[in-house]
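Next up, sample data.

:::
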Amino acid sequence: MRASDRAYRVLLDEIQSGDLAPGTVLAEVEQSVRLGVSRTPLREALGRLLADGLVVQPSPRLTVVSDIDAGDIRELFEVRRALEETAARLAAGGAEGALFAALAGEFARTDAAADPDAYYALIARFDETLDAAVANDYLTAALKTVRTHLVRVRRLARDNPARLAASVAEHRLIASAVAAGDAELAAHATHVHLHNALVAILASLEGTP
């Protein structure tokens, strides 16, 4: 793996996990030493994070982890809703019904509150299966960008057992609708899931129980 790729992956994971909080200054010398790379590959990694929107550069010599507030989250979900509802509708017209039926069964057996990491891994597999079923490179590229930011946002719901349980049921319905070839139900179930997720995330951000 190239040094710039390794630095990018480490920094991406730290930003998405919250280890590098919004507002953290990423000084080149400090990060080069910490990550064990020279400044050239570090700059390449920071350039990729800048393109992702995960860092900002108020000046050429200053790189800072970008903030994410309620307005950002609402905008993210506006784009996410358009993309994911379309993806669900398209996938329901495909030939991968058996794969989605199997995923629906896995969602039915999942206890997200007991093991959130396993649940998010299952969602990642669901997303991968959805992308393959859609088979539209432009749509999946746009979804990839949204999901890069979504990882940061999902942390706000990790400690809400009721929301996690509801999310499991919502994903099960989406997967079942796609498996049955019901495009409108798949899109509607996706819409409901995203609405509920947004409400819960904004409530968590505001400190509302």
